[in-house]
Amino acid sequence: MSPVYPSHLIRQVLWRGERLLVRPVRLSDAAGYAAAAKHCSLEDLSFRLLRGVREISQALIARFTEIDYDETMAFVAESVKGEIVAVTRLVQDSCRRSAEYAIIVRSDLQRQGLGTLMQSLLLDYAAGRGFEEVWGLIDGENRKALKLAAQLGFRKGFMAGVPFVRVVKALS
Ligand SMILES: CC(C)(COP(=O)(O)OP(=O)(O)OC[C@H]1O[C@@H](n2cnc3c(N)ncnc32)[C@H](O)[C@@H]1OP(=O)(O)O)[C@@H](O)C(=O)NCCC(=O)NCCS
Fold first, then answer.
1. How far apart are CA 104 and CA 86, in angstroms?
2. Which of 13, 111, 116 should be mutated for ligand 1, with most atoms under 8 A from CB?
3. What is the pLDDT of residues 6-56, one digit of tens each?
4. Residue 146 maps to a domain
5. Domain with 117 in it: what CATH number?
6. pTM of structure
């Protein structure tokens, strides 16, 4: 049985005077994901995917768009033209007290506050779900994501033997 689409989580926000629809991802967003990926640099895609994946395949897009809206949640920001301009994702840990976040903003639209807006909305959602903390893995060379996380109150943790930084923010 397919999960019920959580339409109560749809909201409109203003970003630089433009209306954006921030809403849970839908199965039908696969084409929008592929189109958005064309506006993302290889470096940004690699940062998002932690160096793990070289191409945005149909299978990967299916993994991103087919979610249960419970253990996994993802929000897209959609422009008035219907283009996906940013995506956030939150995956609950097995302990159910914490969750891992990920975010990407189209490379051509960065440095204009969209990352801050989307990550803040995701943190609000995580707090509403009752998670005690949200964490993320960021490539050690990814200065922009590290800075964004620091600005939003995440603390850096140490991870031995891997080129990633674990950032964590307590919500309660
Ligand atoms: C990280 C990311 C989400 C930031 O999105 P954004 O829309 O540029 O974020 P904002 O415009 O809100 O900027 C927030 C802060 O991020 C930092 N930042 C953003 N771009 C930066 C850059 N090119 N260099 C240094 N810092 C940068 C700054 O601290 C900035 O604040 P400032 O403009 O006041 O200096 C975006 O760069 C991105 O999608 N990167 C690729 C994917 C990724 O790395 N995801 C994180 C791991 S899952």
1. 6
2. 111
3. 999 999 999 999 999 999 999 999 999 999 999 999 999 999 987 777 678
4. no
5. 3.40.630.30
6. 0.95
Query: What's the domain range around 19?
Result: 7-131
* Burial tier of 40 (Cβ tally within 10 Å: 0-12, 13-18, 19+): buried
Number of domains in the chain: 1
Phi and psi at residue 119, to the nearest 5°: -70, -35
39 Cβ below 6 A of ligand 1 = no
Is residue 118 domain-resident?
A: yes
Which residue of 47, 53, 85, 110 sits with most ligand 1 atoms within 8 Å of its CB, as the best mutation to test the pocket?
110
In a domain, 144, yes or no: no
Evaluate whether residue 112 is within a structural domain.
yes
Whether 140 lines ligand 1, by a CB cut-off of 6 Å, is no
